[in-house]
Amino acid sequence: MKIIFIESKSAFFGNLAEELSNIKGLVVVKTAADRLEALKISEKDVIVIDAGVKTGRDQSRKGLELFQRLRRERRYKNPVIVCSEVSVEELSKRYSIVRSRTGNRFVQIPTLLDSFVETLSQVADEALDDDGLESIIRWDSGLEGEWSNLIHSLFHYFIDVGQCQIDSDFHSLINKLTHSVSNWAIDRKRT
To answer: I need a surface site. Which of 57, 111, 139, 169 has the fewest CB within 10 A?
Structure first.
C-alpha cells in the first residue's frame, strides 16, 4: 500500500511519516500539494493531509481547503486521512468534509503509531464510488461558500461598476456561477 503524505511543517506529521516508512509493506511518499497530480496514484493509495490548524491559534486552513479541492476539482476518490490538533467537532463546524465516513477518516494528533495504523487499515479499502463522490462534492466540499462569494462579487459588481457597464468580467462571474450551480445543485433544479 502506498501512503501519500502532503508535505507539512508539523514536526509530528513528519515523524509519523518516518515511522510509517519503517513498516514492511507500506510505501510512504511525501509530496507538495502542487505535485500531487504528477504522481501515479491508484485508487487504493491513501492520501494523508495535515489540516493545518492548531489548538488556540487562528491558522491557515490550507489542508482542509486542499481536501475540498481534491474531491471537488480533481475528483479524487482515494481514501483520505485528515490530521489535526483540533477536534473533528470543532473543524466540522466550518468544514463538514472532515467527518469520518466512507472514503475518509479523521485523526486527532498527536496519536500513537498503532492507533494511526489501525485507522489506516480501516480506510485503506474505501475508495469512493461515483455516487459517494458526488454526494461529498455537493454537500461537503464548500460549494455553497463558493456560490455565496460569487453572488457577493456580482452584487458588488453592480455597486462598483454600475448597471450600464456589463463587460467580460461580469459575464465570467455569471458563467462560473451558472456552471457550478447547474452541475452540483441537483436538489435545487426544477423538474
So the answer is: 57
Q: Give all strands (DSSP E) within the chain, no chain letters.
A: 2-6, 27-31, 46-50, 80-84, 104-108
Return phi, psi of residue 78, to 5°: -60, 150
Cα 8 to Cα 14, 110, 157: the distances in Å are 7, 14, 38
pLDDT value for 115: 92
Cα 7 to the chain's mean position, in Å? Answer: 15
Burial category of 130 from C-beta neighbours within 10 Å (exposed 0-12, middle 13-18, buried 19 and up): exposed
Of 47, 52, 69, 38, nearest in space to 3 by CA: 47
- C-beta neighbour count of 151 within 10 angstroms: 12
Q: With beta carbons less than 8 A apart as the criterion, state whether 29 and 39 touch.
A: yes
First to last CA, the chain: 45
The distance of Cα 100 from the centroid of its chain, to the nearest Å, equals 13
Which residue in this structure is represented by grid cell 511525501?
30
Beta strand ranges found along 67-159 (DSSP E): 80-84, 104-108
Instruction: Write down the pLDDT at residue 190.
Output: 46
What are the average pLDDT values for consecutive 10-residue runs of the chain, which has 191 residues? 82 86 87 77 85 60 82 86 88 83 86 90 86 84 77 76 65 78 62 42
